[in-house]
Amino acid sequence: MRITREMNERLTRVGEGTPMGEVFRRYWIPALLSSEIAEPDGPPARVRLLGEDLVAFRDSAGDVGLLGAHCPHRRAPLFFGRNEECGLRCVYHGWKFDVHGNCLDAPSEPPGSQFRFRVGALSYPTHEAGGLVWAYLGPIDRMPQPPDHELVRVPAGHLGVSRSNEPCNYLQAIEGGIDTAHSSFAHNNDLGNTGHLRALDTHPRLEVDTAAHGFTYGSLRQVGQGRVYLRTYQFVMPFMQIRGGLITWQGEPAAYPVIHGHIWVPMDDENTAVYNFAYSADPAQPMAGEWWADHEREMGRAPEDYEPGTHWLIRNPDNDFLIDRHVQRTRTFTGIAGVNTQDYALQTGMGRIVDRSQEALGSTDLAISTARRLLLEATDEVERGGAPRGAAPATHRAIRGGDLLMSAGSDWRETSKDVREARF
Q: Mean per-residue pLDDT for 359-367?
């Protein structure tokens, strides 16, 4: 399917009233990490979501509120508010709002005034699960049940989550995440290892199965000795990827199986909040803290990789991601440190919003073209008044991804069936 400039605009613009913006407003979407507002009555946090400026806070009872960034009185910034006694109090005139946006107090008005009952702050419903605060920004009468991904059901100690902000449109980030072929090149971090599975076959064959949640796809690489390396991914509409971790043989349990994934949330048209997660796939085996720390460092997401106090990486377009040309010649394909940082360099290098009408897609781009088709279908469905694919929890609660080696000629769908089923 050729993407015209008009279709590209439809896919990439996410503000209120845009076709894709209205699609995103039919789903529960991550607004921030729970850890960003960890303590009751702690400091509020700024949130940028679908082009809207908001503020999040955890009240005295531990409930999370997500309000418009500005006080409805005189539009002062609520980020500077006092979080106290189950409400956020604006420091300009003392007006106080609860997590639902109700005005609890307007002390600058005369005693006994009923004016506060006619004023409220913009407020969106929230749901906390899986280390994330999810928000729903759409019509209340169309609000689905909260998300029920396996991610939100894993026990304490099994899950790691993090966030990185990326200065480009959300769709560029998604398309990088569901493009398995680039991992043979961009993520080749050992040029001398010619036996690496993804280096053995740099043009995988892709098969994509559309499903109620989005799609499942299999990437098949011929790696010799009668074996095929299979990567199975899940794309959950409109913005989530779930993939496997350690490779298994013919579906046998791995020594330390881990499920990985990302959720790419549009902050606005030109910036994306990337939520990264991994969890132990074995209910009886928690995820080791040192494993998560090592994993984040390998990805380029260790604490020292961020600008202090932010989710923005030190390696960024302004400093060419600190590319090391000597390392590029001698050790790694890109010369850029951090697996995800390599992705960011290539995705942001396309521009804030890439012009897809100039592309030439090939055989390994089948997942990308499928995602675009499903997203465009979702805009049509929402405009007709329907519910978009994948919004209902029942569509995505039972899936996961998985990597495995299998015998050549095997049916990948049947061979990987067990490893693609949720266990929690």
A: 94
